[in-house]
Specification:
Blueprint: H1 16-43, H2 57-65, H3 68-83, H4 95-140, E1 147-148, E2 151-158, E3 169-176, E4 179-187, H5 195-211, H6 215-234, E5 261-268, E6 274-279, E7 285-287, E8 292-294, E9 316-318, E10 326-330, H7 332-336, H8 347-358, H9 366-381, E11 389-396
Antiparallel strand pairs: 1-2, 2-11, 3-4, 4-5, 5-6, 6-9, 7-8, 7-10, 10-11
Helix pairs in contact: 1-2, 2-3, 2-4, 3-4, 5-6, 8-9
Amino acid sequence: MIRTRAWRPLPHVPGESRGGFARRLFVLVLPGLWVAGILLWEWTGRGHGVPLQLLAAAPAIACAGTGRRECVVLGGLCALLALVPLGPAGQAPASVTRLGTCAATLAVVAASYLTAGRRARLLRELALTRDVAEAAQRLVLRPLPARIGGIRVAAGHLSACEGALIGGDLYDAVPTRYGLRVVIGDVRGHGLAAIGTVSAMLGCFREAAHDEPGLPGVLRRLDRTLARHLADRDRAGHPAGEAGTGAAQPAADEPTAEEFVTVLLLQVTQAGEVTALNCGHPWPYRFSSRTAEPVADAEPLPPLGLFPLPDRLAALPGRRLERGEGLLLYTDGAEDARDAHGAFFPLHAELLACLAAHATSTVPAPCALVTAVRERIARHAGGRLTDDVALLALADDRPPVPA
C-alpha cells in the first residue's frame, strides 16, 4: 500500500543530516559571537557595565536552539564572566552590578532549562500520540498486500484533513473463494468526521465478501450496516451521537438523514472475469500499457443511504481482464481537485500521461501508477485539497488459465 501523506514519517533526504548539523552549529556559534561582542564592548570601556547585562540572552539562545546541556554550560560561563571586572581601571562596574548581572544570568539559565525540558516532554508525548493515532487509523484502513491471488494491488490516499491518515474514503481488497473482491467508496464529508462510517462499512465488507456468493448480497449487507450505524448514531445517549465528543463527530447542521455513501464493488475471478456493482461512484479505468478507458458507461444506482435498494439487483458483467491489463479505481476527490485557477484535475489525461511516461510495452506496476497519479494530484492542487482522494490499482500478470 502506498502510504498517505498525512502524518507520514519524513523520508531521508540526502544532505538533510548535514543541514541539521549546520543549523545546530549556527545556534551554538551565535551565542558565542554574542558573548564575544559583549566582552569586546565592555573591554573597550565604552559600555560602562551595561553590556554585561546582555550576557543573559546568550544561554537563552543556546537553550532554545539546541538543548539544555549547552544552555547550562554557556549560562555558567556567562555568569562567571559577569563577575570578572573587564573594563579599564576605574570604569569597571560595581560589585553589586556584577552580582546582579550574574543572578539575572542564572535565573535565565534556570528558566530556559525548565522550559526546554517541558518542550522536550511535550514533543515526546506528541510523537507517542501520533504513533498511537496512526496505528489506530491503520486498523481501519489497513495496508494492502502487494499481491492478492496472483493479482498485483496497490492503494494510496490523500487526506483533506491535516494530520489524518484517513478520512471519508474507504477501500479494501480481499481474496475469497469467489475471486478477488474489491470495494471503494466515499462517505459524505471528509476528514475525521467520516471515520466512524468508514470503519462500519469496511468491517461489514470484510465479513460479507467471504460469506455472500454474489455481489448483490454484499451490497445489501453494506446497506443494512449503514442504516444501523446511522440509527445508532442518532440514538439518545449513544456515544457516537452525543455532542461534544470530539472532532470525529458530524456537525449539528449535518443530520444523519442526509448521510450517504457511494460504493463500487468489483469482483475478479480466477479466470479474469470482471463483475461490478456501482452505487453512485465513478467507474474505474481499465488501462494497458498505452490506453485507458472507463470499464462501463451505465448509469449507477443511487448512493447507499438515500433510497432503498431495488428488489432485484444484478452485477454488471464487464470485459475479461486480460493479462497485461489493469484497473484504476478512484474516488471523486481525484477529479474534483482544483488548482489555483479553479481548474479540475484532468484524471483521464494525466493517467494517459503516466502510461506514456512508463515507456515500456508492459503495463506499469500498480504501485508505480498509484504513486505517479497521486503525485500529479498533489502537485495540481498545490496542497489545497477540498476532499479526500483514494486510489486503488490492480494489474493481472497471472499465467493464462489452461483451456
